[in-house]
Amino acid sequence: MKQLYWLLCLVFLPLQSQAVDLANGEKLNRSCAMCHGMYVQGAPRPYSPRMAGIDKDYLVKATKEYRDDLRTEITMAYATGHRLMTDRDIEDVSAYMAQVDHLRGVHPIARHTR
Ligand code: HEC
Predict the structure, then answer these.
(1) Residues 42-63: pLDDT tens digits?
(2) Hey, which of 27, 35, 59 would you mutate to test ligand 1's pocket, going by the most ligand atoms within 8 Å of its Cβ?
(3) What's the pTM value of the predicted model, to 2 decimals?
(4) Residue with the nearest Cα to atom 4 of ligand 1?
(5) Contact, 113 vs 107, CB < 8 A?
C-alpha cells in the first residue's frame, strides 16, 4: 500500500508543479498589450485580434506556432520576444490572457486578490 502511495505521488507531482504563474503572465503581457490592448481586447481588423477570454489551450497552440515559425505575423515577430519564449512562458501568458475580463476591464490578478 505504501508503495502505491509513493507511486501516485511520483505520478502527480509533475502535474502539481505545472500550476500557471499569472504574475509572470502579467509581466509578459506588457509586451503584447501595445497591439492586443491593455485588456487583451484587440483592435478591429486588420489589426490585432482579441484574446481575452479565449480558450487558453488555443492561445498556447497559436503562440507556439508563431514562435516555431509555423505561423507568421511579421510585426509581432519584431515587437515581442516571443521567439525566445519558453513553453512555460507561453502557458503563463496564455493563462493570463484567457482570464482577462475585457468587458468589465478586470485583470486576473486583480480579480484574485479582491
Ligand atoms: C506589433 C503588434 C503585436 C504584438 C506586440 C503582439 N501581437 Fe499577437 N498578433 C498581432 C496581429 C496583427 C495578429 C493577427 C495576425 C493574423 O491575423 O494573421 C496577432 C495574432 C496573435 C495570435 C493569434 C490569435 C488567433 O486567434 O489566431 C496570438 C495567439 C497572439 N497574437 C499572441 C501574442 C502574444 C502572446 C503576444 C505577446 C508576447 C503578442 N501576440 C504580441 C500583433 C501583435
Answers:
(1) 998 778 999 999 999 999 999 9
(2) 35
(3) 0.84
(4) 76
(5) no
